[in-house]
């Protein structure tokens, strides 16, 4: 049976000031925007004094959504361009008392049967699929780099005094550095976007137990925020959950692959994505003219067909990323099996 064109989604989000932030200022922000063929979802964790972090996070999400809606073209290019617009919105306002402000940004674009993730900073994306929890993003932070180098364990990083020091954020320079990659989605997937106010205090194993509960996205977001506050709530907390009830057909563009070298400058990403779009266009043109030639000159269909096949194979071999197979969901250490009985169900606080 052919997959439907568009997915069926529900989402829920909650942001909370936490229990230890002075002045009750919440520097987190979240976005859930319905689109004709999916949705745009994002979380941002602002930084800076004098309420600068709150301003930065909201500026970034406003600019992200507006720039995406105003642009045209393939979704990966639109999303990368929108992240750059968000970066410039923060940078332009970082003057006077707001000098030095910035924000993380984690965006997930659901486009038909695919999810595109754009990641800057240490907010995290997780995917619950088939009873396993996959961490989709790696933190752009000093302690995360020490963990990757083997100089620190995850538990040590969780309690380190520099755990909140990010190595990449919006507003730091004119060209944003980001990670951009895509994966195929399927019915039953549950996607979590969260700030480090949640992931920094609630373990991946505990997240797995809570996300595995058969509750609505809104109720699950409340459980996650409660769990972070139960651990002391040292930071602002944001949880955004998207449930995929029905997948859609994969889009016609090439899904950006996951890179191993971390965040790269946006102009390099845009150049690669536009190159992918050109190759896809050339493939379609070669296939079209091959079929047209066979129909118009049937007596020469064999040499025309062979020539077209050779051209198609040449283009595909010359551009390895043409295949749209989704990237791996993460290393084995980032995958946890579901153990739903480990955490008791508790009532949500009002």
Task: Give an overview of the whole structure.
By secondary structure, this protein is of the alpha+beta class. It has a single domain, classed as Phosphatase 2c, domain 1, CATH 3.60.40. The chain is 36% helix and 23% strand. It is built from nine helices and 13 strands. The strands form two sheets. Strands 2, 3, 4, 5, 6, 9 and 12 form a seven-stranded antiparallel beta sheet that branches. It has a six-stranded antiparallel beta sheet with strand order 1-11-10-7-8-13. Helix 2 runs antiparallel to helix 8. It is globular and about 80 Å long. Keywords: Membrane, Transmembrane, Transmembrane helix. This is Serine/threonine protein phosphatase. Residues 10-244 form the PPM-type phosphatase domain.
Beta-strand segment tally: 13
Strand and helix order: EEEHHEEEEEHHEEHHHEEHHE
CATH class: Alpha Beta
The number of distinct helices, counting runs of at least 4 residues, comes to: 9
Q: Give the domain tally.
A: 1
CATH topology: Phosphatase 2c, domain 1
Shape: globular
Q: How much β-strand is present in the residues?
A: 15-25%
Give the mean pLDDT.
Answer: 83
Q: What CATH architecture would you give?
A: 4-Layer Sandwich
